[in-house]
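Thread: quick sanity check before group meeting

JM: Hey all, I'm pulling together slides for Thursday and realized we never actually wrote out the predicted structure for the chain we discussed last week. Dropping the sequence here so it's in one place. If anyone has concerns about the input, flag it before I start.
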Amino acid sequence: MGRTKLMRAPLKYVQGKDCLLHFYGDTSELGKNYLFVCSRSGHKACHAKIENSFADSDCYRQYEIFGGISSVGEIEKMRKIVQEKNIQVVVGIGGGSAIDTAKATAYYEHLPVVIVPTVCATDAPCTGLSVIYKDDGTFDSYLFYPRNPEAVLVDTAVLAASPAKFLVAGMGDALGTYFEARVCQKMDAPSLENGGITRSAMALCRLCYETLLEYGVQAKAACEQNLVTPALEAIIEANTYLSGVGADNGGLAVAHSVYNGFTALEECEKTMHGSLVAFGTIAQLILEGAPKDELDTVMKFCKSVGLPITLKEVGVSDNARVLIAARKACAPGETIHNMPGDVTPEQLYDALLAADLLGQQMVA
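JM (edit): ok, ran it. Output follows.
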């Protein structure tokens, strides 16, 4: 029988070219006074379209450029504005940090939150959690919310205009979704929402993986030329919705623990989240003893879109550093412990070096 199953997702998901021209129509039932928490580039990319959608309304709108990380102080600052201006709807516009700041502000002030992602680098927009940092930029905590965002609006013209490296990183994050959920389902481990895993969640996770293989290369090419094509639309949906709702309801395993481990290394500070998750996915398949054709398919996919298949590509050249990362990845409470029979730092270290060897052969 196992644990009680649970499924959560955003109340509304809207995706399409120039869909922000209808922003007000899609969110008007939530309230009249809006606070927009924006990254600098997010404000630039979306402000005109969003304002256009409010043409005949008498809604109050305040746009705030936030400080760059979803920190305790930044959230406090936004909460003050909410209280002073009688805000009824909080909107996050930008990448993961702007989104997380908006989610946390809305949560503490008991308000609905709308998410407008301007890059496709992670699956943060649809999830019911945030990563919060201390004001000095160090990790503070994960904040889990009682519900997912009220609405997620994805303007594919905005994403097509952003650098393709973000789309590729998003594919790396999305690549782990199916494989991590598969392990959690097999082990009856909890999802990120702390429930059992539904068949619906597994179907989304599987579709996420199939979409990446089918459209990844075409989507990257389209994004490099700022073109909105069916392939790009498919990958944006995979990176944002299928991966976000899939991971939320499917659970995590080795791939995300590897990310957490490698972020402890200075040389990986600039390596994108999705790049490390992709490499961690390869290590997970090696630990599972996955069939050769499955491992080959995943590695060939990574190579075809420009995701790392060697340690050098994630910025690590010293095996002693890999062991430090492996130890951190196996810390108590890490999702790597969802693996059958558990994983020791030494086993993970061996899998990471094995992944690197296979990757070097493929590159050569």
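AS: nice. Residues 5-160 form a domain with the Rossmann fold fold (CATH 3.40.50.1970). The radius of gyration is 20 Å.
JM: adding both to the slides.
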